[in-house]
Amino acid sequence: MRRLIWTVLGLPLLMALVGPAESVAQEGRIVAVVLKVKNDVRQRPSGDVQWGPARKGQPLVAGHEVRTGEDSFCALVFQDDQSLLKITSNTEVTLKTEDAGAGRFSKRVWVGVGGIWAKVSQQEETSFEIETPTSVASVKGSSCYDMVNLSGWTTLFVLGGSFQFSNPFGQAFVNAGFTGFSNGVDPPVVAPTGRGEAPVFGEEGTTGGSGEGEGGLGEEGVRELRIGMRDEEGAEKSLVIRYREPENE
After folding, report:
1. Of residues 96, 180, 105, the one with CA closest to residue 137
2. pLDDT tens by residue, 168-197
3. Which among 1-5, 107-111, 218-222 has the top mean pLDDT?
4. Is residue 167 a contact partner of residue 187, using CB atoms and an 8 Å limit?
5. CATH class for the domain made up of 30-214
6. What is the rounded CA–CA span in Å between residue 59 and residue 64?
7. HEC profile for 173-212?
8. 3-class DSSP assignment, residue 3
């Protein structure tokens, strides 16, 4: 048995590969795992025409698209560094990655419309970027909200650390407590975030009860996910993930 230790928001998360599995994840490198789903959340791997429902514990591969509907929510964790992504209602994202060696990969999250919250782990020989129709935010620090309206205008609320915020007309650094804005025709604008201006997800990030694929571990708040997949040699395995529910930010 091979074991890996993950951490989500500072909490231990145990992964173990055991086999055989009843189902096998789609071919392609697993880059993230779905942690939470509320209401209408759809997903499709790169190249697929049909959208399917997203499920808690589902592995997502490079190029995967995720789409949320009205009053819907999805949270996922990246496989290599445990960076956390929360996707709010009426949002479309694509997970783009580039191999960085040693099991790590650089990440670019495309947000076509809607809003996301990202808590990014320290990047070592990798990068984490949030791309929209009018900007690219390169992570230099911790967490942010990124909101994109139907016109493609982007608003970046930085809650921790620092982000390099750029478009074809210029760039700026947005630090914690500040907000960046890009309309796609002017250089980015940065201003202090006003009291109450930064959005909050509220109860969208909470779920109750036990769903398919979950199992109790005898400790309150701990969940277990089982995911069918293949290892590098093509053998069928079952990926077991134990974690604590992430709290809302």
Report:
1. 180
2. 999 999 999 999 999 989 999 999 999 888
3. 107-111
4. yes
5. mainly beta
6. 10
7. EEECCEEEEECCCCCCEEEECCCCCCCCCHHHHCCCCCCC
8. strand
Model pLDDT for residues 65-74, shown as the tens digit of each residue: 999 999 999 9
Give the start-to-end residue ranges of the domains of the chain.
30-214
Distance in Å from the first CA to the final CA of the chain: 35
Instruction: Say what the pLDDT of residue 236 is.
Output: 57
The pTM score is 0.72
| Neighbour-count burial of 107, counting CB atoms closer than 10 A to its CB (0-12 exposed, 13-18 middle, 19+ buried) | buried
d(CA 189, CA 187): 6
The DSSP bridge partners found for residue 224 are: 242
**Phi, psi at 218, each rounded to 5°:** 80, 15
Whether the CB-CB separation of 121 and 82 falls below 8 Å is answered with yes
As given in the structure block, the two tokens for residue 218 are 């005898």
CA distance 189 to 30: 36
Q: Is pLDDT larger for residue 20 or for residue 130?
A: 130
Q: Which residues contact 127 (CB under 8 A, 6 or more apart)?
A: 106, 107, 108, 138, 139
Q: Which of 21-30, 43-52, 142-151, 232-241 has the lowest mean pLDDT?
A: 21-30
According to DSSP, the residues that pair with 74 across neighbouring strands are: 37, 87
At position 225, the amino acid (one-letter code) is L
Give yes or no for a contact between 176 and 156, defined as CB atoms under 8 angstroms apart.
no
CA distance 247 to 225: 18
Question: Among positive and negative, which fits the CA dihedral 224, 22, 43, 83?
Answer: positive
